[in-house]
Specification:
The chain has one domain (3-174, 210-328): 2-enoyl-CoA Hydratase, Chain A, domain 1 (Alpha-Beta Complex), CATH 3.90.226.10. The protein has eleven helices and eleven strands. It has helices spanning 3-31, 87-99, 117-133, 149-152, 181-187, 211-235, 240-246, 254-259, 269-279, 298-305, 310-321; strands at residues 49-55, 61-68, 103-112, 114-116, 138-147, 159-162, 167-169, 251-253, 265-266, 286-292, 326-328. The strands form two sheets. Strands 1, 2, 3, 5, 6, 7, 8, 9 and 10 form a nine-stranded mixed β-sheet that branches. The radius of gyration is 23 Å and the shape is globular.
């Protein structure tokens, strides 16, 4: 074993000891009645989350949940940081905020161009279900961008407030693929495919797409688009033809969105806090926000020490090559 490998092992051991110590402290804090939830477990594949005070107050508690970045579940990765989006942890945060009896209202702070149709729907249904079981006011505060999937997940809100510079809307669905057939021909590359049906290799980037395949994929996009339209119509209390008229994929400024009734008001995060406080009739709310406790992933860290996992690399390459329908502004 070379010197660099020993150094990496030593660093991993030190980090493991530190994380275990943090885990003990977190558990003690929770036992003492703190708001901290999901204390750090250094052997899990997920970063932990905690809460911290955003604005101290003597009144009822309002919780801020943040969606910052593209809404995708990319699984086990070291790329997660304290300010990046982690789908699995966010869903746990939503559940905790609604189930926590100390939290009386929730603010969803959205700064996202959207993301996967599945993940966007998962968030929407999660919030809607929890809101039905734990009736708490939900106010959305839109940041720089709350488009497509970012707008989709905002639909269960009782009130939507956007910054005057927010770009929102982009109601629509997109699925893109590539055609490498001409390049492959120039390079002398030929793909040999054995398939059970003529559409089994649909969207194969090594050949031209057939008209029948275009119809198949367009039917899927149209179905997903219909879901989006219905959700906006329900969430914003608009009739379906009105939504279809404005849901052509374009983005809107906050002023335009308000005129179209896609949002309720123009303001910043403080405006959203005040709106939530007004709903629960609180003049001095205690405002907390959910934060990722730790950007590191111990399991992945140890994997870096071990020999290269070719099977994992192959799986990640295959996953990245699969065309995915997105509620995403591009």
């Amino acid at each position: 074993m070379n010197k660099k490998r020993w150094i990496a092992i030593a660093i991993a051991v030190v980090l493991l000891i530190v994380y275990i110590r943090v885990d003990v402290l977190a558990s003690n804090k929770k036992a003492a009645g703190g708001l901290l939830e999901n204390p750090l477990n250094p052997l899990t594949s997920q970063p932990a989350y905690t809460t911290q005070t955003h604005r101290a107050g003597s009144g009822q508690t309002i919780a801020i949940l943040k969606v910052n970045g593209t809404i995708l579940d990319i699984g086990d990765t070291l790329a997660y940081g304290t300010n990046s989006y982690n789908h699995r942890i966010f869903l746990k945060q939503v559940e905790d905020a609604f189930q926590n009896p100390e939290v009386k209202a929730i603010i969803l702070e959205v700064n996202s161009p959207g993301g996967g149709v599945y993940e966007s729907e998962e968030i929407y249904q999660k919030i809607k279900s929890l809101k039905a079981n734990y009736p708490k006011p939900l106010v959305v505060s839109m940041g720089k961008m709350a488009a497509s999937g970012g707008y989709y997940i905002s639909m269960p809100a009782d009130k939507i407030i956007a910054n005057r510079y927010t770009m929102t809307g982009s109601i629509g669905v997109i699925l893109a693929t590539y055609n490498f057939s001409e390049l492959a021909g120039k390079l002398g590359i030929e793909e040999v495919v054995f398939k059970s049906g003529k559409n089994k290799d649909i969207l194969n980037p090594m050949r031209d797409i057939r008209p029948e395949e275009k119809q198949i994929m367009q039917s899927i996009i149209d179905e997903y688009y219909g879901y989006f339209v219905d959700i906006v119509a329900e969430g914003r209390k608009l009739d379906r033809p009105t939504v279809i008229e404005i849901a052509d994929g374009r983005i809107y400024t906050a002023t335009q969105a308000k005129e179209l009734k896609l949002i309720d008001d123009i303001g910043d995060l403080n405006s959203a806090i005040n709106a939530a406080a007004e709903i629960i009739k609180e003049t001095n709310p205690n405002v907390i926000e959910y934060k990722y406790q730790n950007p590191f992933n111990i399991r992945r860290l140890f994997s870096l020490i071990s020999p290269l996992d070719l099977a994992q690399v192959k799986e990640e390459l295959q996953n990245s090559a699969v065309p995915t329908a997105m509620y995403l502004y591009r």
